[in-house]
Design goal:
Shape: globular
Number of helices: 13
CATH topology of the largest domain: Endonuclease III, domain 1
Radius of gyration: 18 Å
CATH architecture of the largest domain: Orthogonal Bundle
Strand content: 5-15%
CATH superfamily of the largest domain: Hypothetical protein, domain 2
Strand order of the largest sheet: 1-5-4-3-2
Mean pLDDT: 96
Order of helices and strands: EHEEEEHHHHHEEHHHHHHH
Distance between the termini: 45 Å
Low-confidence stretches: none
Number of strands: 7
CATH class of the largest domain: Mainly Alpha
DNA sequence: CGTAGACCTGAGGT
DNA sequence: TACCTCAGGTCTA
């Protein structure tokens, strides 16, 4: 089985951090689906063994191309993040297919990981081409027959997802990666069901915008406590503060805090 | 411009 | 069992 170098990378942590939903445990590793490939990954010391795709694909998907040393150095400049960093230094920002990412996070509003994962898998199973037995690729956008999404049980997100399937041009979506931050963000927010939070998720987790910072309820809490004396402030100010502090590593900082607070790690306690 | 409600559904707790 | 609450927001008034 081929393998690639991944020093200090925590596959389990990264996959379970809610950036990407098309994975499941598989033996002592994981099975992932991305961009028409079924990838089987297994951590093996400081390497990742892989099957089903190219090293370049795996490295890109898992975020292993980034200069992680530089990122960690940037994160350590903030003492509060530095305090929790030892536990989360193995986190990476993934770069998945933008179209799948977009649909996934539109499905994510007021939902939970388990249900989001079920919704995404359901769409793939119902409409995507089979890759292997029982494993389907995610379908590309195409107008779906009215009511086709009903069995997926998306609730009130259904009309948004239907709108995406009818309207999105994947090539144009992909091309946003080369546009300036504000332009890409504004373009995404014109899509149905896409507000600031989802837009920055797509930018961070699929378009390579390291300065993106999705502000959800958890990050809102963290941000207020860390920098605004627990006062109510607009989400935009929180995201801007992440960017001012961590620059192009804001997305990684955000993802680490997100995981940390969900793990119950106390926030804002300076290291003693 | 900032602020309430509404919006489907299913999992988890009592 | 039959409720009750809540979950990675967005849209509209």
């Amino acid at each position: 089985m081929p393998s690639l170098a991944a020093p200090g990378f925590d596959l389990d942590l990264t996959l379970r951090s809610g950036q990407f939903f098309r994975f499941r445990p598989d033996g002592d590793g994981f099975l992932l689906v991305d961009s028409g490939r079924v990838l089987r990954l297994r951590p093996q010391g400081d390497r990742i063994e892989y099957r089903g795709g190219t090293a370049a694909h795996v490295r890109r998907l898992l975020g292993l191309d980034a200069d992680h040393g530089a990122a960690l150095a940037a994160l350590r400049r903030d003492p509060l993040l530095a305090a929790v960093l030892p536990r989360y230094a193995g986190m990476r920002i993934m770069t998945q297919d933008p179209w799948v990412c977009l649909v996934s996070f539109v499905c994510s509003s007021m939902s939970n990981m388990k249900r989001i994962q079920g919704n995404v898998e359901g769409i793939a199973r119902a409409f995507g081409p089979a890759l292997e037995d029982g494993i389907h690729d995610f379908p590309g956008p195409a107008a779906l027959p009215a009511g086709a999404l009903a069995p997926i049980r998306l609730g009130w997100r259904e009309r948004f997802v239907a709108g995406l399937f009818a309207r999105v041009d994947p090539a144009r979506l992909h091309a946003l990666a080369a546009r300036p931050f504000e332009e890409a963000r504004a373009a995404l927010m014109e899509l149905p069901g896409v507000g600031p939070k989802v837009a920055e998720c797509v930018m961070a987790f699929s378009l390579g915008f390291g300065e993106a910072c999705p502000v959800d309820v958890w990050i809102r809490r963290v941000g207020r406590r860390l920098w605004f004396r627990n006062r109510r402030v607009p989400d935009r100010r929180i995201a801007d503060r992440f960017r001012a502090t961590f620059g192009r590593h804001a997305a990684l900082a955000q993802q680490i805090w997100f995981q940390a607070v969900r793990d119950g790690v106390p926030v804002g306690q300076a290291p003693r």
